[in-house]
Structure formats: structure tokens, C-alpha cells
Amino acid sequence: MGTGDKTLLRRAADERYGTRWFVGRGLDLGVSVAPRQAWFSVFPRIESLEPWQTFDADPASLSQIPSDAFDFICATDLLAHVPHPEVALANWIRVCRPGGHIVLTVPDEDRFEQGRYPSSFEPRHTATFTIQKARSWSPRSRNLFDLLRPFADQIEILRLEVLDAGYSYKPERQDQHAAGTTEAGIEVVLRKLQRPPRPGGLGRRPVQVLMRRHWAMGDVILTTALIDRMLAVYGNDVAIDVATGMPHVYTGMPHVRTVNPVDLHYADYDRVIDLDGAYEANRSVHAIDAYMIVAFGDANWPRKETVLRRDVPRLTATVDWRRAIVLHAGIRDRNRSMPRLFWETLVALLLRGGYVPVLVGTSEDHRWPERLDIVDLCGDYTVQETAWMIAQAACFFSLDTGVGHIAGTTDTPMVTLFTSVRPQNRMRWRHGVLGWRVTPLVPELDCVGCHSGPCPLGHYGCTEGPKAVTAETVYAAIVRSVETAHGEAAQGHTAPLAEAAQLTFIGSCDDSGSAA
């Protein structure tokens, strides 16, 4: 429960540890455990002290431990080792009884890491920690005030102190913490509050969170990936409201209380997550990662899948979904819209190959009303109905459009053409894999990923020039995607194959696998 004699002696000299903080049944979440007899002799009011390995090999989730199970939790230098500190804190608070205490230490980034990340002295650290500073040198710095702020209605901070007893502030770098006679960290003591009753005795007040992203549909769909992490951080009792100009995206969404097309009063919320401009200001990362960084301080979260409810539509047409290739022949920015001849060629190739072209989108997209061999489902279907239709199909193709993001919430194989955005920044996460069952196509141009509406070079070569992706290339990718999915189904693969994480870009790429 300690990393050395210095910690034990310091705590023994402060009567609060022995009379208030280390009292009753305790859970030891220490990285290294000091002799247990010493702790019982120094803190005689400890009744029992259980190591976390007794219950669960994951000290962040503690999934086998019921809520309110322990009088105190001690976590020594562990928070720096878990991938998601906010999730660990949420669960440590959960298993501590109301009125109980959580005593945790973390390495101080300036005194332990001393200006280098990954840490020279402990490369397994997943983050660095500071109490508060204007700017950190560390790319993975976590401000403890920001980290604790979401739990303000559950805990009070009794102690927050830099530990530097015995520390030498000499210029040379050395691991002073290793000897056990020097401290180079930060200690936090928290008290879990008694749950204030709601009117009617329904338990404590839920954390009130407002998330806002007004436009556009694809960007709003991407925000649904944050709900899972909010539940992990705040618990199932969180109340989530969404302010968006695309409220239909969140229709019937579990865990979302209300959806409003206009902004609400910020003062009514414990936390406001403003995602407008988040991706636009950080285009070097995936859009969902940009949202995560704004909302939680980092993008270290294993589940980034977007979700939509699926509603079975009332179809007037009979569709053989086993051979259906759903197309969104969208008309929008010129560098995200393929010419009509491209779509006519692709439709002809699909019909010749025995597939059924199915059009989805709006009434303003490319359509062929005179053709009876094309199933036209454009127009009056909801986002949820469109998601259902795409989920039944053999494959889906579009550029990077909002309907493409609807398709990303399904398991249907996708072929996606990327022009003004890079695949690695907008591709869909599925089953924990970026680009599972997605074939990204990229024009053979160095200017791919310009993020511009009007072409800054004036030639629109990504959609109209001789190096633009052809309908023949798209058709070949569709056939390959369908055959691969059929092969996986025949072998009983219902989850991503290990090699699916290795993305193959068709088009111009550099050696790293990123689109040029």
C-alpha cells in the first residue's frame, strides 16, 4: 500500500490517516505493496485490507466489487498506469461507501518524469499529472482539478498536495523516487459525499451534461460515440441533453434525456461539452478523437463506434437485399460530388454484374426515375429507416457524406471515396477497429485532404480529373468487399478478423499507410 518507508513515516505522523482516512474495511490498489503488518500496527483502526487482485484483475473497472463496499480505498501510483483515469476514478468512487475516503497518489510530472514522456523512469505510465499549470510540456498531461471536476457532486477534496520531501532540485536528471526515501508525487484525499436525496426519495441527483454540435448530419452522428464514455465516467445515472440542428439523429437514443435544436441555458448544467469547431480546429486527428479530446482531455478510449436506432421502413418496392448495393449519389460540394456520368457507369456495371442498385438520400441527389431496374428510395425516409435499409444490403458506396456516416453504424461492407478529407480522419470505427469492412478509395493526387469546399487549385481533380477514382475501380472494390464478407460468413466470423486493422488504401499513399 506504499512505495517506500518515506510514505509510511509521513502518514504515520499525521493523525488523520490513522483516525479518519484509514479506518474500517479497506481496498488496496497499490502498484507495490508494503509489509502489511506495518500498516496494521501504524493504523490500528484498519479492520481488513484487501488487495485488488482478490476481486478483479482490472483495477480500473473493479467489476466484481459491489458499490459502497469499502470504507476506504488506497491507490498508490496506480492512476498513471491505467489507460482511462476518469473511468478508474468513477469506479473507485463507486465502491467506496458514502462518508468513506479515497487516498491516491500519482507521480508529479515535473519531479518524476522531469520533462520527458514517455517516462524515462517508468515507460508504462499512460499519462503524466500536475495540480495546475498554464501549459504543460507533456502531450499526455492530466490536470487533477480537471480530472476531478466531473465528480464534484460525489466527492469533496480534503487534501491535494505536491509531495517533495527529500527531493533534490538539482539540474541533473535521476530517478529519486526509486530509493523509497524520496517522494516525487502528488497526493489526493477524497471523501465520498452522502447521497443527497431527490424529491420523493429517488436517490442522488444525476450529473447534468449538455453536449452540443449543430451541423452537419455526419458530424452529429460522430458525436454519438461519446455517449458510451460519458456513461463510464459519470455512471448510468447521468442526465444527457443534446443541442443540435440535426435532432433526428438522436431519435430514440438510449441514455439521452432530451434533444433540442437550439442552445439551452448553460447554467442549468454541471458540464457543457461544446463540440462545434472541435474537429475543424484539430484536423490532424480522427474527428471522433478530436471530440474526445475536447470532452475528456484525451482520445484514449477503446470504443469509438457510432450508433443509431434502426426503424423498419414501410417500403413500396420489393428489394432482394442479398444482391442490393446501396448508393448515395449525393450532390453537395463539387469536390465531394462525382459527375452524373460516373454514377451512370457504376449503375450499369452493377446491373451487368447481377446486383440491384438501391438509391438512398434526398430528392435533390442523382436519380433516374425512368429506370425500373434501379430501386429509388430517396426522399421521405428517416435516418433510422435509412440505417435499417443499409444494414440489410450486401454493400454500400458513397463519398464522405452524412449518409455514409449512417452506413458506418451498421456492419454492412462499405466502399468510401475520400477526396477533400483523409480516410484516417473520417473512416468509421466498428467493433473496436478503425475501418473494419471499409474499403477506402483515394484519388492519386497529392492534394487529397485539403479540407476545402471550393478547390483551392481550381481543377477539382479529385472528382473530375484524369486521376480521379473511376467507376470501374469502385465496382471492383464493391465486388471484392461482398465476396470477402461472404467468405467471412461462411467461416463463421461475426467479429473483426485480426488483420482487418491493417488498412489498405486504394490510391496514392505514403509509406506509413496514410493517404497522400
Overview of the structural elements:
This protein has 14 helices and 20 strands. The chain is of the alpha/beta class and 516 residues long. Strands 2-1-3-4-8-7 form a six-stranded mixed beta sheet. Strands 15-14-13-16-17-20 form a six-stranded parallel beta sheet, with helices on both faces. It starts with a helix and ends in a 26-residue tail after the last helix. Mean pLDDT is 85; it is low at 196-203 and 497-516.
Strand order of the largest sheet: 2-1-3-4-8-7
Mean pLDDT equals 85
Q: State the major sheet.
A: 6 strands, mixed
Which range best describes the helical content: under 10%, 10-25%, 25-40%, 40-55%, 55-70% or over 70%?
Answer: 10-25%
Q: What structural class do you assign from the helix and strand content? A: alpha/beta
What share of residues are in beta strands? 15-25%
Low-confidence stretches: 196-203, 497-516
Number of beta strands: 20
How would you describe the shape? elongated
Report the end-to-end length measured between terminal Cα atoms. 51 Å
- Rg over C-alpha atoms, rounded to the nearest angstrom: 27 Å
Distinct helical segment count: 14
Brief characterization of the structure:
With 516 residues, the protein is α/β, with parallel strands linked by helices.
Q: Secondary-structure map with pairings?
A:
Blueprint: H1 5-12, H2 15-21, E1 24-28, H3 36-42, E2 46-51, E3 70-76, H4 85-95, E4 96-107, H5 109-113, E5 128-130, E6 141-143, H6 144-148, E7 155-163, E8 185-192, E9 208-212, H7 217-223, H8 226-234, E10 239-243, E11 256-260, E12 271-274, H9 287-296, E13 324-327, H10 340-352, E14 356-359, E15 375-376, H11 383-392, E16 395-399, H12 402-407, E17 414-417, H13 423-426, E18 429-430, E19 433-434, E20 438-441, H14 471-490
Parallel strand pairs: 1-2, 1-3, 3-4, 5-6, 9-10, 9-12, 10-11, 13-14, 13-16, 14-15, 16-17, 17-20
Antiparallel strand pairs: 4-8, 7-8, 18-19
Helix pairs in contact: 4-8, 10-14
